[in-house]
């Protein structure tokens, strides 16, 4: 049938069949079906629906401000001054904030944070990042030219993966990632059509990393792909473990021996709570191992403004530092980042402040330190509380939350529950989490979204809600678990 | 020997930008000037970027006041800020989780802002319905383009996805397409007719392409970058009809929709025209329309904010599209806030309205004046000609370079317009974009200048350009 010479379109251009196959494979549990249901329930509550709870507690995403954590005053003051420079005349703003704002504005086109920046990021901020890295790592030099500001750490991670993924069939790039992992990695690997190579963290040993497991995983992978990189998240997400220095050295040695590119996701570097644990940057350890390693092992380290004590997720700020990259490859990297124009300038400015905070003697120092210490000590308290309470529940076993922002306890599910889930085509821990959401309003992410050993079930819960809410949450969870276990026995 | 040496061949194929080399040289010259090196000019003027703030235009006061207050809510009690600023900031903060712009938002964007955007679109399009369900707020139109392209671009052989792309075009689109492994199917805009888009040319390009790739989409930029042409309603209808006949997904890049300088021209959106054409077009042609806070009067390029509105997406792909967009977690919140103001600016009667509308008027006048001056000055120069600048943010004049210059460039291993731009930079400190970056007909040469700059700066730009050009042309005779 023709109308005006146009045949009625029988099908669309973009259909499930013509769609990019790799995009179809992408899943992102943190924003997945359970979160969508939570949002729906919130809507229903607003519309007056009666439920056994009055609010949805979103303990699914690592968003500190959403849970009531306050921003760092100094950072917000500087950013306000940068946004509206008229405020530089306002006596209510401290001098050190104004000084930093002026410096940032001078680094911006037309002295406006609304101008595009170069794609690698504003130069004076990259210099500040380099100095921070040097201070943090006890003097190990950092070249600002190896620093790339990014739109959150995710942008940097995906960019590096794009550089790494090549080949076909048996020579297709494999990327080693821990199980459990932060699902951005699995999603990015799916999107890029890379081979995901899993190495299991040891739940019995506090989610520790075993070199023999890395070896096993690598050898198995070499049968069907070309493993080229090893990703490690330290402190860990969702697991919260803080790797020991020895472990980091072992991983570096392994990467060197097996010719693997190291990707070190260190966005939680300030979130270390447990006694005896300390953050060691991969870069620092690499350089302390001497030139045999520090001149050869290729490394990309990632940081972000979304976590630590700042919790500024909405700014999409971050950076990566690349070490020992071939100059030609670095040129490709520069080309690749230029395609996305530039990271949000306010996020760049914020990153610049995170790495260059108030110093002793400066007017804002005392308040800054008070706020920073306050946030981190509260998180430490909540980490301990979470571990303690969860471990009082029969059927829930929680490893110490040494760092980061989450607990990832193991839950024992009755056989009947597992069976029902399988019949529904659902992961058993998804069934558990969905029921939890419907009955208590608590939104968690099932462990299946992060990866786990077959036959084990977990959930990821953030430690971010305020202490009193966290206590309520944990007690409701305890009740639910007992009820659930009884129901299905 | 680096592991990364075997970087995906697809990435090597992203054309290296000669503009980058020019930009590096411009930065170098600035440093030299700061170090006291003597040159025939005191500063570098950079009009190679499409960046109003870099060009010297000021941000809108209301935007920056609201943003500052959202960043530092103590300002809600400040007597120095107008009441409507505080009200807007309070309302926006109330929509952020935890009352903070540091929280993630939902994938699509803050729901009330998405709603505002849908109302803005509907109002702009004379009442054509717009639903928040079809809108995603993103970190800028470049991000929108990359996300949308990824949905259907495949990179293998006969099935390699082709996208009809205008020549000249916005170079970052071409780079993004390349990076994804797609291929550009160039269609030439007709320079002699004011950069008109001709359907016969679309047809020719498509016919050629079908032999070696799978053309799936048609990318249009209206108003044009770098050309400044504004499509007539009829032209848009013709394109839509063509897309329907040939089964192509329409990508309408409309980021310059607020920049129409010629009073006889009018921006009309692809969506509006599509709907007014009625069925079968209105319920079948797939369209993604893009807008941004980077251009127009706002110029907030560094905030990274924009949106994409989908029309007639197949229901089976909607869920996948949502999951795909959720990978970014969310777009930059300050960009979302700015978008809210763009969608819902101060109204008559609001305390900030006089300043706001005055600032808009001033930018409008500046651009109109710049357009006149550029056309006057270039019109008087021999060896350079410029099509009427109906809209957009650039002038894209053609350089009529004699064969000896072309030869000289060839011997230097440079494109002729890059050679011209390099000499222009060295001798006058004026940094412009080279036409080859955008694509142009074989044997033609152009430069691109951003006209979003204060009038006195525009004069300086035109002085430097004409001085250089006259000297350059006389050297050759």
UniProtKB/TrEMBL annotation, chain A:
Sample GO molecular function, one term: pyridoxal phosphate binding
Q: Which residues form the Aminotransferase class I/classII large domain?
A: 91-474
Pfam families per UniProt: Aminotran_1_2
Q: What is its EC number?
A: 2.6.1.2
Cofactor field:
pyridoxal 5'-phosphate
Q: Which SUPFAM superfamilies has this protein been placed in?
A: PLP-dependent transferases
Q: What does the subunit section of this Swiss-Prot or TrEMBL entry state?
A: Homodimer.
**Protein name per the record:** alanine transaminase
Species of provenance: Clupea harengus
Q: What is the lineage of its organism?
A: Eukaryota, Metazoa, Chordata, Craniata, Vertebrata
TrEMBL record, chain B:
Which EC number(s) does the record attach to this protein?
2.6.1.2
* Requisite cofactors: pyridoxal 5'-phosphate
Pathway where it operates: Amino-acid degradation; L-alanine degradation via transaminase pathway; pyruvate from L-alanine: step 1/1
What catalytic reaction does the record list?
A: L-alanine + 2-oxoglutarate = pyruvate + L-glutamate
- Pfam families found in the cross-reference section: Aminotran_1_2
Example GO molecular function: L-alanine:2-oxoglutarate aminotransferase activity
Domain (Aminotransferase class I/classII large): give its ranges: 85-465
Keywords, sorted A to Z: Aminotransferase, Pyridoxal phosphate, Transferase
Q: Which family does it belong to?
A: Belongs to the class-I pyridoxal-phosphate-dependent aminotransferase family. Alanine aminotransferase subfamily.
Q: How does it assemble?
A: Homodimer.
Q: What is this protein called?
A: alanine transaminase
